[in-house]
Amino acid sequence: MLGYIRQHHLVSDQHLLVAVSGGPDSVCLLHILTTLQDELDIKLHVAHLDHQLRGAESAADARYVARLAEQLGIPSTIDRRDVKAYQARRHLSLEEAAREVRYTFLAEVARSIGTSRVAVGHTTDDNIETILMHLIRGSGTRGLRGLQPNTRWPSADSSLTIIRPLLTVSRQETSAYCYDHQLAPRTDTSNQSLSPLRNRIRHQLLPLLQSYNQRVSDALLRTARIAGDDLAFLDKETARLWNKVARRQGDIIILDKARLLKLPSALQRHLLRKAIEELLGNLRDIETRHIEEIIAALPKPAGKSLNLPGGLTFSILYDRYQLGMDSTALCPFPVLKTKFALKIPGETLLPGWQVTAAVIKRRRITRNGVEGTGPTDNFTVYLDLDKAGDKAVVRRRHPGDRFQPMGMNQLKKMGEFMVDAKIPRAWRQRVPIICSPEQILWVVGWRIDDRVKVTENTRHVLRLEFERTPDTC
After folding, report:
1. What is the DSSP string of 316-366?
2. pLDDT tens sequence across 88-124
């Protein structure tokens, strides 16, 4: 075990927490680590949690672990938590609730002793059962990899690294070790129940598979190693491609649509997983089906979105994909809750904007446009004042809006114009619309109405300029 620990760099802190249930695997782990303390230059601390699920039996387990730690001269923290109450509050399965409560407890104890690592007694048998469990649940290639020498368990206050020094040791070997060293570990009678999926795999599925192939365990572990190698390569490629395909802006990750679509599906999946993990911090609630739903949606037209666990939304825009908590987070337009009358000429302040209106006389109009105005952008326009009038208001889009976009000779529905102009769906209710009492004059940032454009017959020009202000409420 010492060589395995060093090979995978499992121990790095001065202190190491050891999770001990009282069963053969964890007792074997604790005893071996006790003999290796000097060589590893570590100080051990035992943690045991009574889940309050087996009454007197689990209470006896706690007393056994406390006595064992005392006999070995190892400090310990023994606690009890109401797993069933947690399960009811969080609407989880009993196994999920027990795992979350247990690792939350371990994270608390680890933090209290100044370490970020906890050793658990997972064996080769646990790994085989985990691989089969993932296969049954459709966890994909990542699930086929099985248990790893170390993994990270993110908690509310800190990150806990779980190390598995016994991962190449069988359950039969841990029991034999305990017998040879007269450790008398406890027996968990709940392990005989066929209710949990893991127990059904252990007692029913594995024996059945072994009747077809006596070396099925070796085959599963070999598959896990191959999957691990493939995933390591994909992880490396994902890291290489990340900055070419993705960029983060606050709580939003933007994925380049054209580049992502050109990649093989395997890399698309990896990049999507990485993007989700960047935002959520982990992939605990993300299942293979969620990734596959996104993959299936990639060729869909703009406007489609998917809701994901953790409050994430995957949105398809015209030239990119957007992943984040708020689909409007990157919208350059503040919310317009009501309409505002524009002061013409003059300045009008509204949430997030300053609108400046100026009237320019005909003598400043030249063949090339309006004299002395300099270059314009999408937020500055020139209108025929006599046609536009001086009673303009700014508002958001209304149902049934129509206007005649510059260059067209007929009216067009606002919704159709915004689709054709590739305005993201999440932005459309925020785009300011300038209207006179008679018609729409300007879809700010995009197009004016053709009927109010400046022509050779224009006598007075209305110059409108939108500028962003720090107030974006």
Report:
1. E-SSEEEEES-TTTT-SS----S-EE--SSEEEEETTEEEEEEEEEGGGEE
2. 998 888 888 999 999 999 999 999 999 999 999 999 9
Please, are residues 103 and 160 in contact by the beta-carbon 8 Å criterion?
yes
CATH 3.50.40.10 in the chain is located at 340-468
DSSP tally for the chain: helices H, then strands E? 17, 24
Q: What is the CATH number of domain 340-468?
A: 3.50.40.10
In CATH, the architecture of 219-324 is 2-Layer Sandwich (3.30)
Tokens of 151: 């993994």
**The two structure tokens encoding residue 382:** 């020139």
| Residue in 160, 155, 164 with CA at minimum distance from that of residue 120 | 164
Q: What is the mean pLDDT of the chain?
A: 89
Predicted TM-score of the model (pTM): 0.70
Give me 281's structure tokens. 């911090």
3-state secondary structure of 246: strand
Which residues belong to CATH 3.30.465.60 in the chain?
219-324
> What is the rounded average pLDDT of the residues 18-43?
94
Task: Say which CATH topology domain 2-212 has.
Answer: Rossmann fold (3.40.50)
User: What is the rounded end-to-end Cα distance, in angstroms, of the chain?
Assistant: 60
Nearest to 328 by CA among 241, 428, 245: 428
Distance CA 285, CA 289 (A): 11
- With b for 16 or more beta-carbon neighbours within 10 A and e for fewer, the 59-93 pattern comes to eebbebbbebbeebebebbbeebebeebbeeeebe
3-state secondary structure of 199: helix
Tell me if residue 218 falls in helix, strand or coil.
helix
Mean pLDDT for 25-43 is 94
Cβ neighbours for 193, distance < 8 A, ≥ 6 positions apart: 199
Predicted pLDDT at 377: 61
To the nearest 10 degrees (0 to 180), the angle between helices 83-90 and 94-113 is: 110
